[in-house]
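Provenance and format

Records in this collection were gathered into a single text stream. Each protein contributes a sequence line and a token line. The two records reproduced below are adjacent in the stream.
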Amino acid sequence: MGGMALRPSVRALVLDGDRLLLFRRTVPNRPLYWSVPGGHVEPEDATLEHTLHREVLEELGATVGSVTPLTTLTCAHPEGLKTHHVYGCRLLTLDPALRCGPEFADPDHGIRELVRVPLRPEEITAIPLVPHELAVYLAAHITRLPELIG
């Protein structure tokens, strides 16, 4: 084993009332999959929370409040180990016109369809959510997200 540690990511479990925001991802030459907002920590990000706020703005055009650290997941990739810092938060504003991530200019990034799912484990186990470790965490904790986030 071994390989290098990859750049850490931040993942946002964003609650909109009693729903969780997910992306249904259609990417060329890849099976359909689902993900949550988030992305790599960039050098200019002062903190992990800064990464989270930047990513939800880039990917959703959203602002969020009450950011709560939930868990840290370590995922094995062919290139090495990847750490995902998972935060819970509540949606404050959402304006798709404000989306500004590089992924929207590049057709190779495919389509991100925003879906709001009820807070039930079967909603997660029924879909191919990546990374798998996050799907396992969510299936176990999704009903408790409102109290975990506060």
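Adjacent record:
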Amino acid sequence: MNLRKLDDEHYPAFSTGQAAELLGVEQPFLRSLDNAGAVTPERSSGGHRRYSRHQLGRAGRLRELFDEGHTLASAQRILALETELADTRAELDRLRARLGGRERSHPDGPTEDGTG
């Protein structure tokens, strides 16, 4: 086995049973996410669902949102917006790095002198 695959968060390393145990949920919960298209695991050659660490993260976050009382539709929208925000922040960090630190990043927004 190529152990580097385990470092890949998108490598489908977990069976439904393993995924359910890691998340502290029942297997039917994971199957229902798959049936709804919210988390789509890959399939083994025998047709069994195989989940990646990335998919487990999504399923876990959806579970948290359900526990807060959100519907599947609202939970999926929240997750999509959270992902979009994270991607935007990462792109902003990359752009700042390309500028070579000419703009200073400040967690509360621009500083009084107008720099970053």
